[in-house]
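> forwarded from #structure-qc
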């Protein structure tokens, strides 16, 4: 196992003072991290004005049993590409296992299944993703940009989006009010 592979199945939290407004208070479950880079989908902010029913309408899918819920800002890469984070009780050809976080699917099939009441029991919808090239995330971790928290599904599926950042810190035993945006060097 190379350095950094342990991040798959963990939740990245942006450190205060990171300096990138794209990731202010970011909560990013990591679904892939290997020698070639890393991939995760943010669930700590919403895409303004976009709901699940609007997406279903654009795809000519009747909403059926799907609640009209908010859509998360998954990240700055491919902001029009959709992802569904969900439990392990659903799988299709696009499903990527996420360890303790459940799974991630990116097909229209999962949206149809949700609308028909045949999808996963727990799920979140996001547009876009966060991606890092070879060694990039490892470098950012060393520069005090991110913290890797334990991947607990209840933090994703049972915590309101606006509380996830603080709740994930709290689950790690850290009061986020005590975090500082800079560190010294020795």
């Amino acid at each position: 196992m190379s350095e950094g592979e342990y991040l798959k199945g963990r939740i990245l939290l942006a450190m205060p003072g990171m300096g990138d407004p794209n990731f202010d208070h970011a909560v990013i479950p990591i679904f892939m991290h290997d020698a070639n880079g890393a991939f995760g989908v943010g669930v700590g902010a919403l895409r303004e004005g976009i709901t699940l029913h609007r997406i279903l309408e654009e795809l000519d899918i009747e909403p059926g049993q799907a609640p009209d819920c908010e859509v998360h800002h998954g990240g700055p890469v491919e902001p029009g590409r959709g992802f569904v984070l969900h439990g392990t009780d659903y799988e299709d050809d696009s499903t990527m296992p996420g360890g303790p976080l459940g799974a991630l699917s990116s097909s229209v099939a999962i949206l149809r299944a949700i609308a028909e009441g045949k999808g996963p029991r727990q799920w979140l919808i996001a547009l876009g993703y966060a991606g890092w090239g070879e060694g990039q995330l490892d470098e950012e971790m060393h520069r005090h940009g991110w913290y890797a928290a334990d991947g607990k599904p209840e933090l994703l599926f049972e915590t309101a989006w606006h509380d996830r950042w603080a709740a994930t810190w709290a689950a790690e035993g850290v009061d986020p009010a005590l975090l500082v945006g800079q560190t010294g060097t020795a």
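QC bot note: Residues 34 and 179 are 29 Å apart (CA to CA). DSSP finds five helices and ten strands in the chain.
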